[in-house]
Amino acid sequence: MTEGPPTKDYGDNDAPGALTLCLHKGSSGPCVSGLVTPPLRTTTPDDPIAWEPHYLQIAKLVYPSGLQAAPLLLIVTGSLNAGNGNQIVSTQLISYDAEKDMFQRVYQKSTGHNNNEEVRFVDHGLLQGSVISAEPQQHLPYGYWIVVNQRMGGEYHQVLRYGSATRYNDGNQLSVIDSEMLAIERRLGLWKPGDPLPVPEHMKNCLKPVLRHDELWCR
Asked: How would you label 48-77 residue by residue, b for 16+ Cβ within 10 Å and e otherwise?
């Protein structure tokens, strides 16, 4: 990874330079950047903002099929911050095919608003290896699109998409994905009435969640 000269974000705050991400085959191998460069997003035709990555938030190996199977490289980058708090956050998963000696991007998703959206790789449990995204709807009833992608044939494919019971600013202290976890598991045939409610992984003090109108809440 290399970093360009320091710059200003779109709120005129100091910010790190643009990032160039690289994959190398060995310590002296050439930089392979195309596979880990997230697609740039522009806002309108008269707006030149490209939202290239400036922050490396996560770069680690993850194991969608357990420790005995080949890992994937999870990369999460963030763009400069806009004046309204928006930021392009790009999530990528990269595989390595040893037989073909080549890298491959198997998942990529970018989000760009500040409405509690999230893209989450699930590293254990019933949904291990899945990628769940929650992205705000732009219309009534102002909920979220919940999308689950799972790996099939090497790449990730969508297996579920629905409109959430969770609404903007409904007072639920859980993240959208955690509040929707029971609905996700039920729709995928992984939960049935009588099973324990899923305990939110990202909120350890929520040991006794309750169900309200198909949405998990903490007591």
From this structure: eeebbbbeeeeeeeeebeeeeeebbbbbbb
For the residues 182-209, what does the mean pLDDT come to?
88
Measured distance CA(176)–CA(144) in Å, rounded: 8
The pair phi, psi for residue 38, each rounded to 5°, is -65, 145
Q: Which two tokens stand for residue 23?
A: 């994959």
Kindly list the distances between the CA atom of residue 194 and the CA atoms of 12, 105, 185, 186, 208, in Å, as whole numbers in the listed order.
Answer: 53, 39, 13, 12, 15
- Name the residue among 119, 117, 159 with its Cα closest to residue 137: 117
Q: What share of the chain is helix, strand, coil (3-state, %, to 5)?
A: 5, 40, 55
Query: Long-range contact list for 25-34, CB < 8 A, 24+ apart?
Result: 25/101, 32/103
Per-residue pLDDT tens for 49-77? 667 899 999 999 999 998 989 999 999 99
Radius of gyration of the chain (CA): 19
CB 91 within 8 A of CB 110: yes
